[in-house]
């Protein structure tokens, strides 16, 4: 359960603000005005702190509750600006479009790709097949994963396909994330970006119905992850 001890606002108000920010394309100043329209006086700096403190924690809990995903994956990275510099948001979905995992990185290289595949496999199990673009670093990351299988005497390897048109599904999936982050312009810190993006990914997963909660609104599902 996520602690709201010491908060000067009710838990429901904080969760509403964080959910609204990660689900819809608004800036903190837009959200400040929206909250004021609902009778809640809270400045944009406080809203920033809420997103940074709670969005990532909610995302961690959400990942423990998501429905099982498929073993045929699509992996790609997109760009996010942090402190005026481009960083890389690694993302993976299965062939049905369900989000597997994501990771923000300051680098786009073999080390980052290997770290991402290690993370996504830890939370979803080993895939049968992964489709990537022509990126050499992503191919190298998967080669490292296959080396682990060989070292542990597994009798099969991950099938790696570098076919651009097969990856269109994840390139389309990137659009939701980009549409939400566009009004945010640029993040002020890497940690803030990582936490906020994690919340955006969870809102996207809710939108895609990955938590098997029929009849529950998006906000109700998001709030449940906070305990």
UniProtKB/TrEMBL annotation:
Membrane spanning stretches: none
Is the DNA-binding keyword given for this protein?
A: yes
Keyword 4Fe-4S appears in the UniProt entry: no
Lineage: superkingdom: Bacteria
Q: Which GO terms describe its molecular function?
A: DNA binding
Q: What does this protein do?
A: Involved in the transposition of the insertion sequence.
**What is the protein name for this chain?**
IS6 family transposase
Organism the protein comes from = Parasedimentitalea psychrophila
């Amino acid at each position: 359960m996520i602690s709201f001890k010491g908060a000067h606002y009710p838990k429901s108000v904080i969760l509403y603000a964080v959910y609204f920010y990660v689900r819809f394309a608004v800036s903190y100043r837009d959200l400040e005005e929206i909250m004021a329209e609902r009778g809640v006086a809270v400045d944009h700096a406080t809203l920033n702190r809420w997103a940074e403190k709670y969005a990532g924690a909610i995302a961690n809990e959400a990942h423990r509750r998501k429905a099982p995903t498929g073993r045929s994956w699509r992996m790609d990275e997109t760009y996010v600006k942090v402190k005026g510099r481009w960083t890389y948001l690694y993302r993976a979905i299965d062939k049905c479009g369900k989000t597997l995992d994501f990771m923000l990185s300051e680098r786009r290289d073999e080390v980052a790709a290997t770290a991402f595949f290690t993370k996504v496999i830890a939370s979803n199990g080993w895939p049968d097949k992964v489709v990537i673009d022509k990126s050499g670093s992503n191919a190298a990351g998967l080669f490292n994963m296959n080396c682990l299988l060989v070292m542990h005497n597994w009798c099969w390897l991950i099938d790696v396909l570098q076919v651009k048109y097969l990856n269109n599904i994840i390139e389309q999936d990137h659009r939701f994330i980009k549409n939400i982050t566009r009004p945010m312009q640029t993040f002020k810190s890497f940690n803030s970006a990582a936490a906020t993006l994690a919340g955006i990914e969870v809102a996207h997963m809710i939108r895609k119905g990955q938590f098997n909660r029929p009849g529950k609104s998006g906000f109700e599902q998001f709030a449940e992850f906070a305990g």
